[in-house]
């Protein structure tokens, strides 16, 4: 695993979304209600639209372009079903949140 610093831990709180960019990779970090922080590739599987401007409603991420809805705990498509967001491993290291973009196991959630 090759973790890289993504952001300061103090930038994310329960129930919030944090849009990030690491190099050319767009990442959305979600902290769902009654869950833990999760990092997903911020490209909607429908027409590759950025999710950095998506709407986060505690347990769902909604694509602002066409209204596709994803479960913020798993990345699974809720509307429509049969799609999912790629999840990246994250960890808290001191005062930072780190992400592993190179993890071979980073398949769609």
UniProtKB/TrEMBL annotation:
Domain Rieske: 4-99
UniProt family annotation: Belongs to the bacterial ring-hydroxylating dioxygenase ferredoxin component family.
Keywords on record: 2Fe-2S, Iron, Iron-sulfur, Metal-binding
Species of provenance: Uliginosibacterium aquaticum
SUPFAM superfamilies, per database record: ISP domain
Gene3D superfamilies assigned to the protein according to its UniProt record, in alphabetical order: Rieske [2Fe-2S] iron-sulphur domain
One family name in Pfam for this protein: Rieske
Superkingdom classification of source: Bacteria
Protein name, entry field: Rieske 2Fe-2S domain-containing protein
């Amino acid at each position: 695993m090759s973790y890289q610093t993504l952001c300061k831990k103090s930038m994310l709180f329960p129930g919030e979304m944090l849009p990030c960019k690491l190099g050319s990779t767009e990442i959305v970090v979600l902290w769902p209600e009654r869950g833990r922080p999760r990092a997903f590739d911020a490209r909607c599987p429908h027409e590759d639209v950025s999710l950095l401007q998506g709407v986060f409603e505690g347990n769902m991420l909604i694509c602002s372009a066409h209204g596709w809805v994803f479960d913020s705990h798993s990345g699974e498509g809720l509307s429509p079903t049969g799609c999912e967001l790629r999840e990246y491993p994250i960890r808290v290291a001191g005062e930072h949140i780190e992400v592993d973009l190179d993890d071979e196991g980073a398949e769609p959630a």
